Amino acid sequence: MSYKSIFSWKVTVKLPESTQTYKKSNKLFNVRTGHSFIKGIGGLSSYDFCPTVLDPTNVFHNALNKIKKNTGFKGRRFPYENAEGARLNANIRLFGEDLVVITFDLSTVVESNIDEIFDLQNISSHKHPYELVRHICGLVLSGNITGYEPISSPKVYPCVKTTIFGGDDQWISDSKAVEIITRHLEPTQSIVNKVIDKNHNHQLDKSHILLDRQGVFYRIPQSLVNSNSVDKKFLGTCNLFEYAIAISILLNESYIDNLGKEELVFLNELIFEPEILFLNSVTSLETWKLLKDEFRLTSLMTKALNGLQEQPKEIGKLRSILSWIKSVSPESKTGVLIMLVVSGLYWGFSQSIYFPKFKKLFSTPDINIIKPVDTSKVTSTNGKVYIDWEEVDGAKDYVISLEVLDSGKWSIPSIDHRTIEQKTEYDVTVTINNSYQFKVKARDNVGDVIAESNYSSFRVTEAKSKEKTKLQNKVKTNK
Q1: pLDDT tens digits for 32-46?
Q2: DSSP string of 83-114?
Q3: Is the same domain home to 295 and 398?
Q4: Is residue 158 part of a domain?
Q5: pLDDT, tens digit, for every residue of 368-407?
Q6: Which residues span the domain enclosing 317?
Q7: Which residues pair with 434 in a beta bridge?
Q8: Could you give phi then psi for residue 7, rounded to 5 degrees?
Q9: Which of 51, 62, 52 is nearest to 28 (CA)?
Q10: What one-character-per-residue DSSP string does 31-69 give?
Q11: Cys bridge to 412: 198, 417, 440, 467, which one at CB 3.0-4.6 A?
């Protein structure tokens, strides 16, 4: 046989509220940072959105003893091994607080003919490893070592690396490769061309890696069988693939609400301005651009941000109060009493005439927008509009958020959607005959928001000839 493959799979587990938090070490997992996962991507130096690695404890492994015995595997830690020498490994990572992604891989090289690869990438074709995978996912999902049930049909994304031994006549054709990656038998030539074309920009050498939202398939010629660059490329691509899967689920399932401020800022830049984050690897940047499109991350992020921006300030403050109350143990009588008393006092006081004054003490001060006047029409000759706002005492910098009206909805423009300035003025990039809205937040030395404006909107119109001359003269004078 001329083909040797290593099979791995990404499996997602969405945690219900009933499952204990895995953010801190517990009876099932010891936790550590996922910096090595980010390093494996290559070219991405920021750790602002980093998974938590869950290292299984002895309790975790012991809970699987029965299913290990039934499937012929044994081992006190990963990888588990059976009598035939097959080894099943698992790397478990937590994204945010609600999503676990587990990478399972068969460490054993599988020899096959070209047609068998299509079926072998299906994890259910590996009967005993698949049964073990279902139980591992069920244990992670429930967090209960005695009462868990195996997951019936886990969501699986295959990642396959195949080395081709022999000459050019043994090379896996584009058509066959697309058949494997898309899991569609005998794809049309237009589909083959589309998949090959969209994967063109991130190729590195004579090896050829394909990816889409279904999975990853890597064709490697015999001449590169021991190449470090091939191994790094496969690891980096699979890590980025997992990153994209996780982010798409977090955004789509509204898990974004549980992310911190730094994580949200990073994700915003990762999706809308990846060039400023992938500074050291063009290949990683091009791979990420493809994955961003495959998982529709731009649309998902825009929708998620719009949802966050529609929430009143009071909702955010109330969430903070509720988070504190939740932290008081419900099993504690004292905790229950505190919750009841606080709830009663808050409701009663909210009905009094003093509540509005009290509320002001805890609200964020407003920033007054000086220019342009809200709902006004402004002219532009150079694709810029000057905005100005009042200075805030104690502010280190100001964050300007800009939105453009597109098809009746506010959306994020391609340029200047988020800018940080030390001054109280800025020239935002605009397009003639478009409507915009913006808001300004003031931050202190530790990055906390100490004041913010309401949204202020304006419409951009083209300056008439006389006015255009005046504006141009004014620009020259200012220079």
Answers
A1: 999 999 999 998 878
A2: TT--EEEEEEEEETTTEEEEEEEE-S-EEE-T
A3: no
A4: yes
A5: 898 898 888 898 888 889 999 999 888 888 989 898 888 7
A6: 313-361
A7: none
A8: -105, 135
A9: 62
A10: EEE-HHHHHHHSSB---SS-PEEEEE-HHHHHHTHHHHH
A11: 417
